[in-house]
Amino acid sequence: xxxxxxxxxxxxxxxxxxxxxxxxxxxxxxxxxxxxxxxxxxxxxxxxxxxxxxxxxxxxxxxxxxxxxxxxxxxxxxxxxxxxxxxxxxxxxxxxxxxxxxxxxxxxxxxxxxxxxxxxxxxxxxxxxxxxxxxxxxxxxxxxxxxxxxxxxxxxxxxxxxxxxxxxxxxxxxxxxxxxxxxxxxxxxxxxxxxxxxxxxxxxxxxxxxxxxxxxxxxxxxxxxxxxxxxxxxxxxxxxxxxxxxxxxxxxxxxxxxxxxxxxxxxxxxxxxxxxxxxxxxxxxxxxxxxxxxxxxxxxxxxxxxxxxxxxxxxxxxxxxxxxxxxxxxxxxxxxxxxxxxxxxxxxxxxxxxxxxxxxxxxxxxxxxxxxxxxxxxxxxxxxxx
Length: 386
Hints:
Layout: E1 6-10, H1 17-31, E2 35-40, E3 54-58, H2 72-87, E4 91-95, H3 97-111, E5 116-121, H4 124-127, H5 133-144, E6 148-151, H6 154-164, E7 171-172, H7 188-192, E8 200-205, H8 214-225, E9 230-235, H9 241-251, E10 257-259, H10 266-270, E11 275-278, H11 287-294, E12 299-302, H12 307-310, E13 317-320, H13 325-337, H14 339-356, H15 359-374
Parallel strand pairs: 1-2, 1-4, 2-3, 4-5, 5-6, 6-7, 8-9, 8-11, 9-10, 11-12, 12-13
């Protein structure tokens, strides 16, 4: 009997760690022969070119004049149900409780209990939205009515249980990297465009929201460059960008800081760096730290959320209390001035990323969850990562 599944995936298709993980997972599942149907309002940006077993279904929002605001959630739920019926989906895997798990719950009511729902919590749906009393009951409903729930870190599971008084089990499924994409690249020529041979490169990649504490990145760099010839590269865009630029100008550092904007080939960009800066005050996992780790780049970060589960302090990076820029600067200087220590960290980063967070192992963990909720036996052996 054919054990391959028909899976619907819904995520935020624009930039963001949850969309990246959901899209990459879909691609990996399709490579295994599963039929994957992305249901979203636009094509996920990491989906790329045509691939066998991958299909995209666009959600079109009804703009009927009686609606003051276009009812995207209802349109998404309807589309989920339509695709599930037409394609005979086995399950919906939705990323984020609100609105996606709620929409999947509605779709299941329309289709029937044979359609299973797996919900993955990525962070903001709990760390931000669930703080809103008006949304708590809705998020709790979405979680409790799912056939399985996963979260990307132990810290996120703890916060979900504590905040929403969740009694049901939540599976820990860490984020992952595709080792065929994330590995140390030869970035020597690209690096020469930004730094002299004797200069080190610090890098920060994010959406520049206040939670990322990008001004801490600037302060750490200010302290570092007083002792180590260095450059700072910012990758991404977001609301705090003007504040960062103002602070850099005030400090007289504008000739040593470069803004690269949004970049698609993150592995190539990260490979230029000597250290990644991640001083966030909230971070459910810290996917960019894993991407850096897979390219041999250690992280200077904060002891926030799930970061300590990913970055091993003193082995693959250094972690400090949130806002302790002096400690972060001291740790960065230590790595940037000790070549032997930097080499040790680089090797530890590569081993941990490609062994503990490899794509094959995490993909298989999701498959086990899918088959479990469907009441079927897992047909393949767990892959070995190295």
